[in-house]
């Protein structure tokens, strides 16, 4: 994983707290805001709206799709901390202003809170999703 240890630990704490109480305590919410900055609140909104879908093929290959606040669907890869949104390319990759965009953070939070929608697809459907993303970028 390429997230800083403090971010990994915070996500573990959120998962543990949520499993025990079905809530995220205020101190952990403040930690989220401190570590992830302006992405934290919009990411929590995406989780509340159940905008995160785990797309899984029979081989076990998995990706996430997040319905952004603009209504556009973004593909996220939690294994390598990558999102197809413009903010990720600009704020995370080019300027290094943020650790993550709100979509990837929403993926991690929805994993921790058990709030992912699930979608089973064929290998061919998963490949088509991946190829569609490449066409959008190229």
Query: What is the general shape?
Result: globular
Strand content: 15-25%
Alpha-carbon Rg, integer: 15 Å
- Kindly report how far apart the N and C termini lie: 27 Å
Query: Secondary-structure element order, as H and E?
Result: HHHEEEEHHEH
Keywords: Metal-binding, Zinc, Zinc-finger
GO cellular component, one term: Shu complex
Pfam family, one: SWIM
Organism: Illadopsis cleaveri
How would you describe this structure in keywords?
138 residues, alpha+beta, 6 helices, 5 strands, globular
In short:
The chain is an alpha+beta fold and 138 residues long. 52% of the residues lie in helices and 16% in strands. The chain is built from six helices and five strands.
Plain-language structure description:
Keywords: Metal-binding, Zinc, Zinc-finger. With 138 residues, the protein is α+β, with helices and mostly antiparallel strands. The chain has one domain (5-131). 52% of the residues lie in helices and 16% in strands. The protein starts with a helix and ends with a helix. The model has no long low-confidence stretch (mean pLDDT 90).
């Amino acid at each position: 994983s390429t997230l800083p240890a403090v971010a990994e630990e915070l996500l573990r704490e959120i998962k543990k707290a949520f499993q025990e109480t079905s809530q995220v305590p205020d101190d952990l919410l403040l930690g989220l805001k401190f570590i992830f900055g302006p992405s934290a609140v919009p990411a929590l909104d995406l989780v509340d709206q159940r905008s995160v879908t785990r797309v899984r093929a029979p081989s076990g290959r998995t990706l996430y799709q997040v319905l952004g606040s603009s209504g556009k669907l973004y593909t996220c890869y939690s294994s390598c901390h990558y999102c197809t949104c413009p903010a990720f390319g600009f704020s995370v990759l080019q300027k290094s202003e943020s650790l993550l965009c709100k979509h990837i953070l929403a993926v991690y939070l929805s994993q921790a809170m058990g709030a992912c929608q699930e979608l089973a697809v064929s290998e061919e459907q998963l490949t088509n999703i991946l190829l569609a993303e490449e066409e959008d970028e190229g």
